[in-house]
Amino acid sequence: MSFLSIDKAGKRYGAMVALDGVSLEVASGSRTAIVGPSGSGKTTLLRLIAGFEGPDTGRIALNGTILADGPAIVPAHRRGIGFVTQDGALFPHLTIADNIGFGLERGTTNREDRIRALMRTVDLDPRLLERRPHQLSGGQQQRVALARALARQPKLMLLDEPFSALDTGLREATRKAVAALLQAAGVTTILVTHDQTEALSFADQVAVLREGRLVQAGAPHDLYRRPRDRETALFLGEAILLKGQAGVGWVDCVLGRLAAGTHGQRGDIELMLRPEQVKFTPSADETAQGCFASVVDVEFGGALRAVTVELADGNRLRISGTGLDLPPTGTRVRLSVAGPAHVFEA
Ligand SMILES: Nc1ncnc2c1ncn2[C@@H]1O[C@H](COP(=O)(O)OP(=O)(O)OP(=O)(O)O)[C@@H](O)[C@H]1O
C-alpha cells in the first residue's frame, strides 16, 4: 500500500495552471525525486504535500489520513512532515544548538542529549553547537537544517533543492550522507531537484513533471532507458535520436538492424539510444559487415570524453562516455550497439 497518495491534485494561481491533475504514489521508506524544467510545478507539489497551501482540486493522503481534499486541508504543523529548503533557512541569530532545539517539542526532556544525538545523526561535530550558522560551511548548514527537521521525527521528509547551493564535490558527499542517514532512520523522502544525475542516483522512484503534468514516474533505470517521449529522454541525459522502421522486436536504422522493444509498432518510428550504448572500434577493413563512420570531432573532458562521428548519410552521432580511446579526427571506425534501442510509444 502506498504511504503518500496524491490523487489528481490541481492548483492554479489566477490564470496560471501550476499543477494539472497530478497523481503520484510514494511507498513507505522510499526515496522519490521530482524533476522537471523550471516552472513545471515541482515546488508547488511539494508545498501542497507540506500543507503550506491547499490544492484547488484532488486529494492528498498520508498513511491513510486525508491531508487535503480540495481546499479543505490539515494544517502544515499537524502533518508530521519535515521540510528542508535550498538555503536551509536557519535562524542566523541563534546558535546551532538553538536552531536544532527549535525543532524539538516544548518541554522535551534530555533536550541537550537529544540535540547532541541529532548532531551525531547528521555526522556533525558537537563542538559546532555553540557557533552561529554563518560560522559553518554550506554543507554543514544543510546538515543542521536536516537535524532540525529530523528533531520532529517526521514521517515524511521533503527536500527542496537542498544541495543546489553547494559546489560539486561537497554536493555529492552531502547528498550521499543525507540519503544514507534518511534511509537508516527509515524516513520516507521526497527530493525536488533540477539535477538529473542527482535524481537518478538519489531516488528509487523518479517523477518527471512538465507544464504542471506528471509525464512519467518509475524506477530511475527504467526512466533513463525507456523514457516516454523525446523531451523526457533529453531531460534525463544525453540521447541519440534516430528515425527508423520497426518490425517485431527490431528496428532498422542508419546503424543497421537493432534489437528493440517496439510495443506493437510497425513502420516509421523514432528511436533512442543512450550514447554509452554505442561503441566504436578503429577499422580499416570496410569489406567487413557493419556500420562505418569517420571521426569528425573529439572533446576531451578528463574522465569523460565525447567523440563525434559522421555516417555515410551525413548523420552525426555524439558518443559521450568514459574511455581511454581518443581517436584522431579522420579515423574510420566501425560502430556497434550494446543493448536494445528504445522506441517511443506512439
Ligand atoms: N504564488 C504564486 N503566484 C503565482 N504564480 C505562481 C506562484 N507560485 C508558483 N507560481 C507559478 O506556477 C508555476 C509552477 O511553479 P513552481 O515554483 O512550482 O515550479 P518549479 O518547477 O518548482 O520551478 P523552479 O524549478 O524554477 O523552482 C510557475 O509558472 C510559477 O510561475
From TrEMBL:
Against Gene3D superfamilies, the record matches this protein to: P-loop containing nucleotide triphosphate hydrolases
Q: GO cellular component terms? A: ATP-binding cassette (ABC) transporter complex
Q: Which GO terms describe its biological process?
A: quaternary ammonium group transport
Keyword flag Ion transport: yes
What family does the Swiss-Prot or TrEMBL record give for this protein? Belongs to the ABC transporter superfamily.
Name-wise, this protein is ABC transporter ATP-binding protein
Specify the species. Answer: Labrys okinawensis
Keyword set for this entry? ATP-binding, Cell membrane, Ion transport, Iron, Iron transport, Membrane, Nucleotide-binding, Transport
What InterPro entries does this protein map onto?
AAA+_ATPase, ABC_SmlMolc_Importer, ABC_transporter-like_ATP-bd, ABC_transporter-like_CS, ABC_transpr_FbpC, Mo/tungstate-bd_C_term_dom, P-loop_NTPase, Transp-assoc_OB_typ2
Q: PROSITE patterns recorded for this chain?
A: ABC_TRANSPORTER_1, ABC_TRANSPORTER_2
Q: Where are the transmembrane segments?
A: none
Q: What are the ABC transporter domain coordinates in residue numbering?
A: 1-236
CDD domains named among the record's database cross-references: ABC_Carb_Solutes_like
Q: Does the keyword S-adenosyl-L-methionine apply?
A: no
As one GO molecular function, the record gives: ATP binding
